[in-house]
Write a structure and sequence with these properties.
two-stranded antiparallel sheet, 2% strand
């Protein structure tokens, strides 16, 4: 297959090319650069296919062209799309598990129609003793709250917040 490329150059580009290369060598320089790209791509694909075959115990042909033509490795567009999707999932998970500041948590509750007195009532409903004291200290003095903290679960249950509502409220409070 022969590929033809058109490269748009400015007057300044042409002057720079003429400085480094005699006119008859400019095309040679471009062809050499493109051939380097092709060779690097071939080597990367063969390396990936050999790694895949090693992991699966599959035997590969000895000829590089045969390896490339029979390759089952993913193309660049697929790998990029998968990497982007994975990064988005990781970003959403980080966002989902990011702690809330005490301010964000309280504003989020109020914004959703819950009075802070209801939270105090949930804490007061705990059995007398150290558990209640720890919960009160956490509520009054913690600088941030993680979604998996037992106090958060206790408050949510006392307020009748469903798992779906909790997810929505948490995400919205992160933006406050």
């Amino acid at each position: 297959m022969i590929r033809t490329f058109t490269i748009e150059t400015t007057e300044a580009d042409e002057k720079a090319l003429a400085y480094n290369h005699a006119p008859q060598f400019v095309e040679f320089a471009f062809k050499s650069a493109l051939q380097s790209i092709v060779n690097g791509s071939r080597e990367a694909m063969i390396r990936a296919e050999r790694l895949r075959a090693q992991e699966t115990g599959e035997a590969l042909p000895l000829v590089d062209d045969a390896i490339i033509l029979g390759a089952r490795v993913k193309d660049a567009a697929t790998r990029i799309a998968e990497a982007d999707a994975k990064a988005e999932v990781e970003r959403l998970e980080r966002e989902r598990t990011q702690p809330l500041t005490a301010r964000q948590l309280r504003l989020g509750l109020v914004k959703n129609g819950f009075a802070l007195a209801q939270v105090e009532a949930a804490i007061d409903a705990l059995p007398d003793g150290a558990e209640r004291d720890r919960a009160r200290i956490e509520w009054q003095y913690a600088g941030e709250f993680r979604r998996d903290h037992p106090l958060i679960a206790t408050i949510a249950a006392h307020l009748g917040i469903t798992d779906e509502q909790f997810e929505t409220m948490w995400a919205a409070a992160q933006k406050l």
